[in-house]
Amino acid sequence: MLQDPWNPQSEEIRAWAFEPDSIWPDQDFDLSVAELHFADLIIELSCDARCPKKDFFLSCAYIIVGDAVMTEYETRSKTEVEQFLQQLKATNNERLLTLYKLAKELVATPSSFDYDFWCGEGCLAQYKES
């Protein structure tokens, strides 16, 4: 489905996202998708109730912020992260607004960074339905 999982194209990502039975093309596929040039796509698909992999894209949004803070903004500038956070805020999507709130707290207090929460799938636990 993807020509190169480490250099995916938006159309390939979208097709993969809507194929319920497709597996991750690579162990670290989330790292190749969690890039700001995919920000619009990540936001769109994490908000789309019809997308079978919406949680994957939400996790990618967390990785974007968490990785930037963890690396002290070596992977993404603080300005880029702030711009991404404004995009999240503008969605009025409950899940992305939660991310926005948590991210603002993390940016203000980087010592609170938790790898499993921000760069693993720990962030998704708060969204699981009981």
List the helices and strands and how they pair.
Layout: H1 10-17, H2 29-33, H3 39-47, H4 54-70, H5 78-91, H6 94-108, H7 115-119
Helix pairs in contact: 3-4, 4-6, 5-6
Provide an overview of this structure.
This protein is mainly alpha-helical. It has helices spanning 10-17, 29-33, 39-47, 54-70, 78-91, 94-108, 115-119. It starts with 9 loop residues before the first helix and ends in an 11-residue tail after the last helix. It is globular and about 40 Å long. The chain has one domain (27-127). Helix 3 crosses helix 4 (54-70), helix 4 (54-70) runs parallel beside helix 6 and helix 5 packs antiparallel against helix 6. It has seven helices and no strands.
Going by helix content, strand content and strand pairing, the class is: mainly alpha
Tally of domains: 1
Order of helices and strands: HHHHHHH
Q: State the helix count.
A: 7
- Backbone CA Rg: 14 Å
Number of distinct beta strands: 0
Overall shape: it is globular
Stretches where pLDDT falls below 50 for ≥5 residues? Answer: none
Q: Approximately how much beta-strand content do the residues carry?
A: under 5%
Helical fraction equals: 55-70%
The N- and C-terminal alpha carbons lie at a distance of: 34 Å
Report mean pLDDT, rounded to a whole number: 92
- Biggest sheet, in brief? none
Which key terms come to mind for this protein?
single chain; 130 residues; mainly alpha
Brief account:
The chain is an all-alpha fold and 130 residues long. The chain has helices at 10-17, 29-33, 39-47, 54-70, 78-91, 94-108, 115-119.
